[in-house]
Amino acid sequence: MMENIDNLQEKIKEKYKSLNLDVEAMYKGLLHAKPITYWDYIEVESLLSLQKPRTDFPDEMVFIMYHQVTELLLKMMTHEMKQVCDNDSLTADFFINKLGRMNRYIQMLANSFDVMRLGMDPNQYNEFRFTLTPASGFQCASFRFAEIYSTDLENLADSRLKNNLADNYDIPYLFENIYWQAAGKDYKTGKKSYLLTQFEAKYLKQFIELAEEYKTKNLWQKYISLPENEKNKPELIQAMKELDIEFNIKWPLVHLRAAEQYLDNGSKVIEATGGSEWKKYLHPMYQKRVFFPGLWSKEEMDNWAKEYQ
Questions:
Q1: C-alpha pair distances (Å), 249 with each of 13, 153, 226, 303
Q2: What's the predicted TM-score (pTM) here?
């Protein structure tokens, strides 16, 4: 039922008075304001003008738009993550609700990868991809933000170093040893690729600042801080494990399968545009990234991702 118009007017007046604004001026502004439209609210023209192919291959448009959709879905994820992390009165029910949203977003990403795997002509891709060098999906900062909001940086350390970290370390040290360094760093020489140095020049300061801010209130730490009766709710544990599976197993695997379709012809593995060893970098069994290690048994950790092969 619609509220009485007189009551609405009184509430509007009180609102603007409380803000020390001229009520008459606000009403005059409302009188002359144009009604909002869908296309203005969603910024449709701006959104649809953001695709700028570098070649004339039609499927490059598919490639660009898919990655733009990915960025939006990851932003939706971090939007939900931040609400949990910044909640000083967190309950299991609120946590479960937000995890449900996060899981739906990452499932959309995983399920939509057929747009890339089946929706582009391989011959076109293997031509226009050279104009993208040295850019790479590795340089997706939104994915890294989601990881930082999710867990302790120690849980993201390179698998070769995870059990051999220095006795005393800080956040910059952890970023030097984070798993995604494997995509652009020679661990024998310490030399970094152009792909990695450009990525760090653009985003590393933001990553470090975010990690400092959320090191005691990422999703994993928020879970640990819950009262026992809250953290032991089966629905919460299941939702967290589901996020680990969707984000750290299923999503990398569908990404790997799509890459295999375009970069692995059976006799020769083609180098990614950024030059990374994409097979090792993408495979979840290789890095064994786990956001919430305390929720998994040793056997489950030892066999991480095997059942999804």
A1: 54, 18, 26, 12
A2: 0.89
